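=== Structure Prediction Worksheet ===
Name of assembly: unnamed complex
Input type: mixed (protein and possibly other molecules)
Chain count: two
Listed entries:
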Amino acid sequence: MRTILPELVCPAGNLPALKAAVDNGADTVYMGLKNTTNARNFAGLNFDTRSAIEGIAYAHRHGKKVLLAINTYAQAGEVDKWYTAIDQAAELGVDAIILADMGLLDYAHRTHPNLRLHLSVQGSATNYEAINLARELFNIQRVVLPRVLTVAQVAKVIQNTEVEVEVFGFGSLCVMVEGRCLLSSYATGESPNTHGVCSPAKFVRWEKTQQTLNARLNEVLIDQYAASEPAGYPTLCKGRFCVEDDTYYALEEPTSLNIIEILPELLNIGVAAIKVEGRQRSPAYTAQVTKVLRKAIDLAVNNPVNFVINNEWQQSLAKLSEGQQATLGAYSRPWK
Amino acid sequence: MKHKLALSLGPILFFWSKKQVLDFYQQMIDQPLNTIYLGESICSRRQEMRFDDWFGLAKDIACAGKKVVFSSQVLLESESDLKRLRKLVDQGVFKVEANDMGAVKLARDHGLTFVAGQTLNIYNEQTLAFFRKLGAVRWVPPIEMPATKLTTILNETTNIDCEVFGWGKLPLAFSSRCFTARYYNLKKDSCEFKCQEHPDAITVNTRDGQSFLTINGIQTMSANCHSLICHYQQMEALGIKLLRLSPQSQHMIEVIQIHHAVINGQLAIGDALTQLKSFAEHALIDGYWQGQPGIAAIEECHYATS
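=== Predicted Assembly ===
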């Protein structure tokens, strides 16, 4: 057992969110550029050169690190756009870039040998053989694991690789192996791999009928709400569908991942970093989640034996969760 | 000489009994297929066919003159998943389709060439060239890739064969969660192998009655049937070598025969589509090839060309 202080890695969808993360205890922030090279390519989000320079300077001034996610797959005939993003990241002086595409990892490793490389969750690396190949080929320093492994499986990965392991700690739960889900492009033509978006907002249409509010994604009915029901964003995998005679959340309920309950276990097995999802969320969200996880991680590291889950933490995180519900997701075997 | 598209049979993506599997391949041996993919690529709990069973079957199929490739499991989570993967790579006779970077690692460690499966996410010419260097000799593009982008890549790439997914429910997503077990309110670890009661998996409809998805254990597929037969001439012009037909429990022989007849100029596309439509569980789609959402139906004009 090696208990180390894991980095708390927080989302920076824009400059105010970056500052909120740094001010509330993040060790590291991650961000993306304003284009399809990053997997949260939403209108009004992300960084141009100017805001990136300011954000990186702010984080570095406070002794914090900055990661840049270039984690979509470079598209045919347009690879230069992704190469430019990598070159730009090197120039900006980020502490690491987060990549998924093997060709881009190869380019980054050859062109910028001193730039630290992380393998993105979009890279779908769920086992140490895959991770060790990326280490051997590109000298990756860290891997972000998809949200599909149990704690025991994460531990096995850590035991069998020199690569640092980063896991998701809080935020919207991706039910599928990231990088291997095309549900979004099946319905809309755009997917996380190709356009950096899942269930893109421009395809969402709300339709009011006499009894219901219908949420459509490119005309596919994702969910239908009665007048008394709160309506959520129509993320494809969190809709209600009919299977034979049952209507239910066939893939997953709208719920968020929250690992506070198993934090001591994650520290015990030696995770190097805990990541918060949510570059598309507000600076207030980033501030609140960062504050709670900072307290929880510090207590779990400094006093693991007496680690008790604080109800206030959970209540405050529940308010920020989808459907106000939390799950341990795949970390817990019964979820499967 | 004009290049001709050959047919391949993808791995069985559903959970069939050992007898069903063996009976199925007994029929497939006589079909005009160039390559047959074998093995369990979806769920580690589906083990009616053990490695020795697959290997024996592979030898029989190879003796009948077909090329055999073992498809590796897409999602590798546990040590036992890796153990099965090592067996696949260690057998040393048949090529392996790598569906995860872990399989690429083991193939490379053994100095073996491999088929780069669609879930390796090769979306551009530079990445494809990189995989070529790692030992890939054939490439199955991601199913969401449109013909225009594939053309760009293939114009840049000459030393690797391309195989396109051309028939069947689209394999869209993978999870560690079993959606079939979830439907039955069971846990994955005690799933009672309910998949076996659904030889073409379970359709998921929208609440207004549109057939939308299919849940196949940890895999999510389209409900509609992807069909690229209308585009076979374009595929031949692009130099695509193989058209992959994905197994279904009923009418597979007819599906293969129709594709074969079209490629050999013995059957008009419109007639083929009309027949194929009756052999698919739901509507025929080709949106991805056209640069549209994957769910987009095959345009009526293709039916009118007969």
